[in-house]
TrEMBL record, chains A, B:
Name of the protein this chain belongs to: 2-dehydropantoate 2-reductase
Gene that encodes the chain: TDEL0D00170
NCBIfam families xrefs: apbA_panE (TIGR00745)
Domain Ketopantoate reductase C-terminal span(s) in chain numbering: 195-314
Record key words, sorted: NADP, Oxidoreductase
GO biological process, one term: pantothenate biosynthetic process
InterPro entries: 6-PGluconate_DH-like_C_sf (IPR008927), 6PGD_dom2 (IPR013328), ApbA (IPR003710), KPA_reductase (IPR013752), KPR-Related (IPR051402), KPR_N (IPR013332), NAD(P)-bd_dom_sf (IPR036291)
Biological role: Catalyzes the NADPH-dependent reduction of ketopantoate into pantoic acid.
């Protein structure tokens, strides 16, 4: 009977999102409606092909419902959870607007996304809904509907506290999601301290990610070429200081942990791969928001600030490549 | 009679150096011995082909003597001037060692090169010789012996003051070089204040040059994408502050002058072109030396410092591409 099952709307069925979708449906505890864009036709026809370290080889995985817009997903609702697994690009796409048509008073929104303070726009727009944080540790990529899932799915899910919703209710909505997501093959845990998890991950994401993108070097070369000493450790200290000003005490040991976390691989972080492919980068949620917090709390962060300015320029470059920003044929000059 | 003519040894016959060589020989006032490396065979055979805004089209220009090493140049000496027109790359090539075999007690060394404090290594090694500064404003490039000279040759030549040589003697050696270099087609002036000229040029070279290289964007796009406001002006202010600590007062107006100096062209500075071609960049003399001066004089320069660290990483990347730096097959990991 589907009546007992949770109804999940999933936005963003890439490498991470498709494994999330598969996990949610694995033990028949949820019905997933997946909104697909570029892969819609191919998945409708052939389903996803998955090679997964957790689940093995799977041919023709189709989420229960496949749609190409949130509007057309509504017939499969109302949804208990809307799970957003896209890149977090508020400067490019207003995801709050995108999901709005499918949000009911009982819908919980699950943001399996990078960055800090990403929940604010959702909580402002849907003040009485529960918003959950998903911090994912997974290696998984999607190429035209073929999912290559290389490192095991470890997901921390917690509550972005909302004073308009009883804490018990938020916690139980979160616990239920954790219970559904867990398949025995993956690991999904209740995250008691969402902000801690997010700031901790940012120690890597706000430093190694953008510096690798900017220099177009993997983490190993960055270290051999001296930038871990000259740039990365200092930038990581700035992240820790900003986190502290935001109420999150990270131990100093997280710096060495993150620097060594890719050993012994010459690892290319996702932002570098995005830049190489000409895809948008999560500049605002990974760097812009921390910088804003630093400014608000008068924390000195010269290195992160400059890295942010550099990445903002690269984002414009990608916009130009995509035709989303038109550079005039003649260079505009200042009035004399 | 060649007896009355100045003897010049020229190192670095690229776009700038070949025009310098041609200018010095133009009115038969000097005999140039040119040390060629990669273009030696082609120039020996066919000479340089020059398209020059100052001199027109010239087929088969051969400096009087063409050699492939400083050692083999010695038979054409002793030299009145050794003119160094290579890129200034002390981290790659020790040019002091390169020219040493041809330096006599009466040789003046002319550095037509970018950067600050570039004379120190020469004055340390040749403490009793006159060292001259050449600050060139020219657009000229070399491709396999074909010189494309697009903007007129304007050269400021001055004295790097040397307390071991009478000031009159240094000045007259400099004035004589200016007189030889001037052809009526170009403009070569005596530079009364070498340090001012060099720091002034650095306002552009230490900021727009490396930031364009790092972002792989021309100056026009950098401005449209916001980086002139977010990065360049602030970095230029740091250059001005470091210059002041080094005894050179630059007017604030130089900032807008430099930002507008490429109007209305989407101009790619030389460092960007070097990076695109996989050539070494003048990181140390353009950024490293100013940073050292900032540190010595306790001037805060966080933006230039970070740009320097980024460019140092890119220089390593070029070294790896050229095989001058070997990255181990396995990423080295820290001992546990």
């Amino acid at each position: 009977m589907t009546a007992d099952k949770c109804k999940v709307l999933l936005i963003g069925s890439g490498g991470v999102g498709t494994i999330a979708s598969y996990s949610l449906e694995y033990e028949d505890k949820a019905v997933v409606t997946s909104v697909l864009r570029s892969d819609y036709a191919i998945v409708k026809e052939k389903g996803f092909t998955i090679d997964s370290i957790d689940y093995g080889h799977i041919e023709c995985y189709r989420p229960t419902n496949i749609v190409n817009s949130v509007e057309s997903a509504k017939e499969y609702g109302p949804f208990d959870y809307i799970v957003v697994v896209t890149k977090s690009l508020p400067d490019i796409t207003n995801m709050v607007d995108v999901i709005a048509p499918a949000v009911t008073s009982e819908t919980a929104i699950v943001l399996i996304q990078n960055g800090i303070h990403i929940e604010e726009a959702y909580m402002e727009r849907f003040p009485k809904n529960t918003v959950l944080s998903g911090v994912s540790m997974i290696g998984s990529s999607n190429k035209n509907g073929c999912i290559n899932h290389e490192t095991t799915d470890f997901l921390r899910v917690g509550v972005f506290p909302n004073e308009n919703v009883p804490k018990d209710k938020q916690d139980s909505i979160c616990q239920k999601f954790v219970q559904i997501y867990n398949t025995g093959k993956n690991e999904c845990v209740f995250d008691e301290n969402v902000e801690f998890s997010r700031w901790r991950k940012l120690v890597y994401n706000a430093t190694l990610n953008p510096v690798c993108a900017l220099t177009q070097l993997d983490v190993g070369r960055l270290e051999i070429f001296g930038a871990v000493d000259s740039i990365i450790r200092r930038a990581m200290k700035e992240v820790i200081a900003i986190a502290a000003s935001d109420g999150v005490q990270l131990p100093e040991s997280v710096i060495e942990f993150m620097i060594r976390s890719d050993d012994p691989v010459y690892y290319k972080p996702s932002m570098l791969i995005d830049y190489e492919k000409g895809n948008y980068m999560e500049v605002e949620v990974i760097l812009g928001n921390p910088i804003k917090i630093a400014q608000k709390n008068s924390v000195d962060a010269p290195i992160l600030t400059l890295i942010y300015h550099f990445l903002s320029v690269l984002q414009c470059k990608i916009k130009e490549e995509k035709g989303a920003l038109i550079v005039p044929k003649e260079r505009p000059v200042a009035a004399k």
